[in-house]
Amino acid sequence: MAEPDILIYVATRYLPEHAPEQPGKYAFAYHITIQNRSDVTVQLLNRYWLITDANGKSSEIRGAGVVGKQPIIEPGDEFQYTSGAIIDTPVGNMQGYYEMTTDNGLEFRAPIDIFTLAVPNVIN
């Protein structure tokens, strides 16, 4: 059986109002839409993120579910959530994957393509 067709869309936003107390930290929100374009039900079990700032400093995030949930996504449906990241530079990027399973037990990874975190007008 082929892996289910899962599409992942990302929109990012700089959050100057959420900047940490210490200088040199930049807060970003990312809004994720996960679309199940297959004919089987899937469940998101775990997440993995690789977050890299402009200095090359990387951090890895692994954990169960997203925003406290392990959503079940029916065929043709989607799941959306918003979360955040704090990095040391005004520009960085994120990439990763979701570990998912189908209702018949097939486990697979749905990749999340690299996307940019950037303070507006920093990149021309």
UniProtKB/TrEMBL annotation:
<feature type="domain" description="ApaG">
    <location>
        <begin position="1"/>
        <end position="124"/>
    </location>
</feature>
<dbReference type="InterPro" id="IPR050718">
    <property type="entry name" value="ApaG-like"/>
</dbReference>
<dbReference type="InterPro" id="IPR023065">
    <property type="entry name" value="Uncharacterised_ApaG"/>
</dbReference>
<dbReference type="Pfam" id="PF04379">
    <property type="entry name" value="DUF525"/>
</dbReference>
<dbReference type="InterPro" id="IPR007474">
    <property type="entry name" value="ApaG_domain"/>
</dbReference>
<dbReference type="InterPro" id="IPR036767">
    <property type="entry name" value="ApaG_sf"/>
</dbReference>
<protein>
    <recommendedName>
        <fullName>Protein ApaG</fullName>
    </recommendedName>
</protein>
